[in-house]
Amino acid sequence: MSEVATLQLIGLMIVGSGTLILLLIRAQFARVIGFVGIVLGLFTLVALSVPQMASLPPIEEKFDIATVKTPTDMAAIGQKIFFSKGQCALCHTIGPSESARCPDLKGIGAKLSREFLFESLTQPQAYIYLDYRHGGQPKEYPARMPYINKNPIGLSKNEILSVIAFLQQMSGEPISVNVAELEVPGQTLVAPVKVAQSGPVDVVQAH
Ligand code: HEC
67, 76, 134, 51: which is closest to 100 by C-alpha? Predict the structure, then answer.
């Protein structure tokens, strides 16, 4: 018998004994106990009839290379990552938004080269894109672009390539990331993400 069914049986037994007490016993004190038993028992039964839902963490997106055949497949995975594990959508919008705290990424795949996109994700401090949405001096955005290849987001190289494919696709650009570039698990022992050499943090103004 399932746990819920056991508890329901106990609840029914309590309600039953309460009813018996009310029917058969005249003593005031016992009747009060019986009444309380019925109320509590019914309450339990109602609570147990609510469908039980286990709240499990979201299922991890599995990156199954075997199913990825075309750059469009990569972009589709990249889109999922953008809105889930990559957490990009927490900060970025695709399309203008008044309340955006971070750059709008609409058309970013056309604006930035693939190498620059890669650097933006893995060396976010190498080149800081400033906020130009108001008059006067451009300001830094209130948030900071996190290292996408490090914890807590920690995307793998394959995942980063897919996100780049998605950024290019949604900007109407040809996807320049190739399926052959994906690392097949087991073939590489460590997957060091190739990063451009960067010196100390430079704040560069874009024009
Ligand atoms: C905590 C907020 C935050 C998250 C999460 C985040 N970003 Fe950013 N991102 C920023 C900020 C702020 C900037 C602008 C400053 C800079 O260039 O570092 C930026 C800049 C960028 C740029 C460069 C924009 C330009 O015009 O040069 C790209 C591309 C980018 N982010 C992509 C992504 C992607 C893809 C993800 C998810 C994998 C992501 N970001 C997650 C805050 C965030």
Answer: 134
